[in-house]
Amino acid sequence: MYYVKMTFTPSERVEITENNVEDMDMTDNIWNYLGCLARYGHIYKDSLIYDEGIFQAFFFMPELDSLDEKNCHRHILQGLKNIERKFAITVDVLGKDAVVNTVCSCGDSSWYILFARKNDAISPIYCGDCFKMIPAYKLSHIELPKDCQPELGWQADYKLIDKLWFYSSFDRFTYRQMSDPKSQLSKSGREICAAYEKALGKPFYYFLFHYNISGRVRKKCPDCGGDWILEKNIGYLSFKCDKCRLVSY
Ligand SMILES: [Zn+2]
Ligand SMILES: [Zn+2]
After folding, report:
1. CA–CA distance, 203 with 206 (Å, rounded to integer)
2. 228 CA → ligand 2 middle, Å
3. Global confidence as pTM
4. Do residue 180 and residue 228 come from a single domain?
5. What is the pLDDT of residues 179-200, one digit of tens each?
6. How far is the CA of 131 from the centre of ligand 1 (A)?
7. Same-domain status, 83 and 118
8. Is residue 104 part of a domain?
9. Which CATH number does the domain housing residue 42 bear?
10. What's the domain count of the chain?
């Protein structure tokens, strides 16, 4: 992950005042463009500042070439064309994320996992080989059904439910949503996995949450009842059912 500054210099000088609607439109143009980049997983945790007639956006970007044309969906390229009519854009990489480098560099992953946590600001798609995240734009050539958008739909729901579970003393309803393979949340996540698997021709697993408060191990797959304990852990994973495409730890 890299921390980046993107500078938008308007072709005509603008002054943003409280009542200056036209200039607020310019801010909207930038937000729309950043929103599009975020939707496809090119940028994370963005913020925008204005100073002396110039706008500067700051964000995390998974890879150095995340904004290269070859990685961009046609919607982003169209958005860029529109915004370049009003702004000159420059991009400066300020540094590498000092905390963690979480991006998969396998190139050709042999399997995938859909996985989220309450405070995630990264893609929910993980490489099964290295268990690092794969930016959503890497799979943006795959047109998923409208109700199968992982980042905006399922991941947003998952994060809310995970937060609710964590801050409401581990209540049963939210726990069931994350741990039961047949809950509404699991159902929509598994539909995304199935759609990706069909398009990619590679196994795409759903991560099933389990909080081992009682020390009891789920010895059998909670969906089909078959064996799912791994002889040897794969990364953090101790459970995997190939038939149901489920993993857990
Ligand atoms: Zn990988
Ligand atoms: Zn199973």
Report:
1. 10
2. 7
3. 0.82
4. yes
5. 999 999 999 999 999 999 999 9
6. 6
7. no
8. no
9. 3.30.70.100
10. 2
